[in-house]
Amino acid sequence: MAKTSQLARNKKREKLVAKYAVKRAALKAAGDYEGLQKLPKNASPVRIKNRCSVSGRGRGYLRAFGLSRIQFRELAREGKVPGVKKASW
User: Fold this and answer.
1) Mean pLDDT throughout 48-69?
2) Fold of 50-83
3) In angstroms, rounded to a whole number, what is the distance separating the alpha carbons of residues 43 and 57?
4) What's the mean pLDDT in 59-73?
5) Which DSSP string do the residues of 29-50 spell out, in sequence order?
């Protein structure tokens, strides 16, 4: 499990990105790069870290499922991930 402080920081960034999304898009469309510089750093979408929804792990993240590789494997073996089954040949 990731530190709760890291998870909280990421949640805070997600809220800021959502808050400034419209303003950021308008500034980009207008080409106002000085205005973009004045926005908070954490309002940039590239600062959001993809994390596992179960464990909060930041590495080995599978985007299609929103899980880390470890959680994906465990849930897939239990049959809890729809559309995924163990390969056998």
Assistant:
1) 95
2) 30s Ribosomal Protein S14; Chain N (4.10.830)
3) 22
4) 95
5) HHT-HHHHHHS-GGGSGGGPPP
1 pLDDT above the threshold of 90: no
Amino acid identity at 3: K
**Average pLDDT across the chain, whole number:** 94
Side-chain half-sphere exposure of 36, counting CA atoms within 13 A:
13
Q: Delimit the CATH 4.10.830.10 region(s) of the chain.
A: 50-83
The 3-state DSSP class for residue 68 equals: strand
Q: Is 67:54 a contact under the CB 8 Å cutoff?
A: yes
Q: Which two tokens stand for residue 22?
A: 């419209």
CB 6 within 8 A of CB 59: no
Structure tokens at 40: 């908070």
